[in-house]
Amino acid sequence: MHASTTSQHALTQPRLPGEVKEVGYESMTVTKVPDWYGMIAWDALLNGMATGLFMAAAVSELAAPAVFKPVAKVAYPVALVLLLVDLTMLVFDLGDPLRFHHMLRVFKPYSPMSVGTWCLTIFSLPLTAAAGLSVLALLGFDFEWARILAVIAALPFGFGSAAYKGVLLSTNAQPGWKDARWLGGYLTNSALLMGCGELLVLSAVMGNTQATDILRTAFIVLLLLNLIPLGLLFANLRLAHARLYTPAQQWRVGLLLFATGVLIPLSLTLLSGGLVFIFVAIIFLVLASWSIRFVYIKIPHTSPLALRSG
Amino acid sequence: MASREKELSKLTQTSDPPGGQLAQVAERLIYPFLHGEPPKPQTPTGFYTDTTVCIGCKACEVACKQWNQLPSDGFEWSGNSYDNTTELSASTWRHVKFIEQFADLPSGNGVSLNTTPGESILNRWLMMSDHCKHCLAAPCNQACPTGAIIHNEFENVYIQADICNGCSCCVAACPFGVITRSDMGGHSHKCTLCYDRQRDGLEPACAKACPTQSIHFGPIDEIRENARKRVEELHRRGVPQAYLYGDAASETYSEMHSFYLLVDRPSVYGLPDEPFNPWLHMMGDYARSIVGGLAAIVALFIALFLLRP
Amino acid sequence: MSRFNSWLNELQPEMFAELSPELAAERGIAHGGWMTIRTARGQIEARAMVTRRLRPFPIEGRVIHQIGLPFHWAFAGEVVGSNANDLTAILADPNVSMHECKAFACQVQASRLDGPVPHPTMPTAHWPTLDPIPQTPASAQPEGRLGHGK
């Protein structure tokens, strides 16, 4: 029960006979679930999309600069915008958003949230520089060496910003979450997958067929690679899901996610490099990625099946 | 937290300082980064709650609420024996639990509040006053990114309420479900072990109010010693199920500075049977996260490198 | 007198009656449901707490059930409920007029009383205020003043 400004008088809310909460403490969950729900699923998604896009663009620039430089120059500002939206969401999800700067008082390497805050803060600086210099380059003012330097400086912190999220959401005492050993592995891998996908969309929009074709193959490789940490994560969560959902429900959602997140993007990308195909493929991928995050976040908020069915 | 002489000079500063909006914003930005002189370390203190003498009077709950001026949690009859508070929260820092363990008659039927006892001991009403365990290696302390949760000079876990920004990492981390985030103000709160009273040389409000001296307070070594003697005495007097929960570190969890003498399985009391420190998994999780990311980066790099014209 | 303090009210917000599972089964009273208790002098309603702590007594070949009632509820206060004293005769101790009769015969039934549901006569205390206690330094504010800091 939580404190409330409205009065809660038992007699003004007549109860049905027999309508009594659980008796005894053995069946009650001991831990308290934090107020992390829909907003955190969106944050996990945007974090992955922003850091993944940046890392994919940086890797592509370093691997094959001749092909990818123009695409990367567009990618960095987009990544910055996504990151800023993500950071705003994070700040507003705090209980007291006006105190968000309190997280910069200390650096606690043992707190994933502290590591993440600092990584994101430091990451945003060279990313802003890289994005700004990219925009200047697109307008004709070339500061190539400075731009590359900014990208390289941002790379480790971008990686850190992607990697901390999974550790944050699995290093706690919440039912289900505490068993997800591979959440970090999945989220970081998925960030790069989505980044590659976003880069693919950008190159298709820009009409750069050479980059698009190369990225299509790379995307398919990453899509298939992502199945490994995803499978490991679902193996971790099997017990938690079994407590919450019937086998039929689990199969339905699992197949739906597989179709949305793997089959459709895979087939569309294999079929054609046209803009519409690519765009729809990535939309489905992002949708599935959000759904996976939401299903994960939902676990401690869902009451066990045994209690629900009585 | 005491009204020492040097604080009295601030008594006149009860209204907003002059200076307008900009000065207030600047103060809000600078204030959390100010550091005073750290207090001198004192003898570590703690609680030991002997549930075998608890009478379930809830004086500890009321004393805690009164001393700390906490709000009530709403008036809802839970039906769970005499426990209508139901849980610890940001506004309930002590919570008395009632567990009825009475044998059914051979022809017994109908709903009862009976819980299957861990041992074949029947016909008892267990009462236990739950609160923050003040763990030595507290997961909430590890999780807190603002540094609001600290171990104070008495080695108790204390939330600095003027620093907390309500991120709820501590809520997620606590294996005992002690902390929650309040809807009023959006910060997290829990038992302070009456830090303000301790600094003035007093014992916590709940320990003072307890009429049966079920709640013992004092230097942790001393009360641990007393608790162990009490368990031995109970064993001699025919209560072999008595044991201490949290007085010593286990494989998966540190010792707690607020431990219990229980007579049944911990889960009967709503405590985790084997508390697990989530931080034991952290390094492995980071490693897996890094491996997952690097695998993708390497795969992407190789693919792009090989496919380049 | 008792029902004006919210810290006490939340500990036991409603009038309830404890009864054995056997009596509950016999009268169709569910745990947490409402029941009326009736004596020759009056009747009250209470939440039913069906508990194994109470057992029927076989006495001289008959089964006698026992129910337990607390007191301290009445028509006034932050929480209100039926008054157990409505069931007893007015037998007062000759010294201080304390209600002497605490044990009596009654009937129970799974139902509520007719008539309007009683309403609290006092609004719940508005807790908490985020304003600091005046003329007190910040370090001496109660910890539970949930408006610490700015």
Question: In words, what does this structure look like?
Answer:
The complex is a heterotrimer of chains A (310), B (309) and C (150). Chain A is mainly α and 310 residues long. Chain A has a single domain (33-298), classed as Formate dehydrogenase/DMSO reductase fold (Up-down Bundle). Chain A has helices at residues 38-63, 65-93, 112-138, 144-170, 183-206, 209-244, 247-271, 275-298, 305-308. The radius of gyration of chain A is 22 Å and the shape is globular. In chain B, the strands form four sheets. In chain B, strands 8-1-10-9 form a four-stranded mixed sheet. In chain B, strands 2-3 form a two-stranded antiparallel ribbon. In chain B, strands 4-5 form a two-stranded antiparallel ribbon. Chain B is globular, with a radius of gyration of 24 Å. Chain C has 150 residues and is mainly beta. The two termini of chain C are 38 Å apart. Chain C contains two helices and six strands. Chains A and B meet through α1, α2, α3, α4 and α5 of A and α4, α5, β6 and α9 of B.
Count of distinct strands of chain C: 6
Beta-strand proportion of chain B: 5-15%
Q: Order of strands across the biggest sheet of chain B?
A: 8-1-10-9
Radius of gyration of chain B: 24 Å
What is the number of strand segments of chain B?
10
Number of helices of chain C: 2
Q: What portion of residues of chain B is helical? A: 25-40%
* Beta-strand content bin of chain C: 15-25%
Regarding CATH, which class of the largest domain in chain B?
Alpha Beta
**Biggest sheet character of chain C:** 4 strands, mixed
Q: Given the C-alpha coordinates, what overall shape of chain B results?
A: globular
- First and last CA, distance of chain C: 38 Å
Oligomer: heterotrimer
**Element order, helices and strands of chain C?**
HEHEEEEE
Helix content of chain C: under 10%
General form of chain C: elongated
CATH topology tier name of the largest domain in chain B: Alpha-Beta Plaits
Helix tally of chain B?
A: 9
CATH topology of chain C: Barwin-like endoglucanases
| Element-level helix/strand string of chain B | HHEHEEHEEHEEHHEHEEH
Low-confidence stretches of chain C are: none
